[in-house]
Design brief:
The protein is mainly alpha-helical and 88 residues long. It has three helices and two strands; from the N terminus they run H-E-E-H-H. A two-stranded antiparallel sheet has the order 1-2. It is elongated.
Length: 88
């Protein structure tokens, strides 16, 4: 049963800005690591853009890059952990 749960988890990763509460589900099933990272990066861009939509242009300018960095780092770590669980 644990293996089935680990496989189910391995087919999705979440890119979410840490401060926003905006979640984007990324389907990484069947993707290699570089393709999964690219999908996570695109999802992080969309999530951060949505999270910062109500902010001023100045805040968006300074926060957008760090929001993407935090989101991608978090999602990549979750993806790596899920791949490790699925390989057991």
């Amino acid at each position: 049963m644990f293996r089935k749960i680990a496989f189910a988890i391995a087919f999705g990763a979440i890119a979410a800005p840490a401060f926003a509460g905006t979640d984007v589900i990324v389907n990484v099933g069947g993707l290699d690591a570089s393709a999964a990272h690219a999908a996570i990066f695109r999802a992080a861009q969309a999530a951060c853009q949505a999270a910062l939509a109500d902010e001023s242009q100045l805040v968006r300018f300074y926060e957008h890059a760090s929001c993407i960095d935090r989101s991608v780092t978090s999602a990549d770590a979750k993806y790596a952990a899920m791949r490790g669980l699925a390989s057991r």
